[in-house]
Amino acid sequence: MRSLPNNLLPYDGEVYLFENLFTSQKSDQITKNILSEVSWRDDKITMFGKTYPQARKVAFHGDPGVDYIYTRIKMISPGWTPQLKKLNIWLRKEFQLDFNTALVNYYRDGRDHMSWHRDDEPELKLNPTIASLNFGASRDFFFRHNEGEKVALNLKQGDLLVMKGQTQTFWKHSLPKRLKLKEPRLNITFRKIY
Q1: Domain coordinates of the chain in residue numbers?
Q2: What does DSSP assign to residue 123?
Q3: Please, what are the averages of pLDDT over each run of 10 residues along the chain (194 residues)?
Q4: Most exposed of 10, 95, 138, 141 (fewest Cβ within 10 Å)?
Q5: What residues contact 165, with CB distance under 8 A and at least 6 apart?
Q6: Contacts (Cβ under 8 Å, ≥6 apart) of 105
Q7: How, if at all, do strands 130-136 and 160-164 pair?
Q8: In CATH, which of 2.40.30.10, 3.40.1440.10, 3.40.1190.10, 2.60.120.590 is domain 14-191?
Q9: Count of CB atoms within 10 A of residue 55's CB?
Q10: Comparing C-alpha atoms, which of 65, 66, 76 is closest to residue 43?
């Protein structure tokens, strides 16, 4: 088991960053495999009475039949893809993290983004552990406490971000737009859904 690096949050939660876990060649191969294997969704979200296409491409995989609802979109897992299953086994072996689903987000360029939110859906139960693997372009990633304090990170290819404890209760997170960025980013968030 790998030892934990320093907690990046000052209080009310736990966030750990494991950097550069894969070579560039391995990262590129994982990205290629995932992009060819997953079943992309074409969901729309409704905010403030208006409906928009999601600001990224999304796929949901994991144990067959497990469902997950976020932003009022219900997703049912069709099963694991070969590459996602390998990564899930690797997370269990290397980090003792146990997950049954993977939400895949593909940010085509810096216009694709994720607004401020918490991963606090009832299916995740209180204080979930979420592991986020990142491939492709480096992107700024922010945490904001309920009282306003911010923590800024830069997530790079081959990085693993693990959120634990009270993080989803006290902190929101976001991946803002970066309009000058032309390269894509692939992010896989592994979760345990009950």
Answers
A1: 14-191
A2: G
A3: 89 98 97 96 72 81 91 89 98 97 96 94 96 98 97 98 98 97 97 96
A4: 10
A5: 13, 14, 127
A6: 56, 57, 58, 114, 186, 187, 188, 189
A7: antiparallel
A8: 2.60.120.590
A9: 17
A10: 76
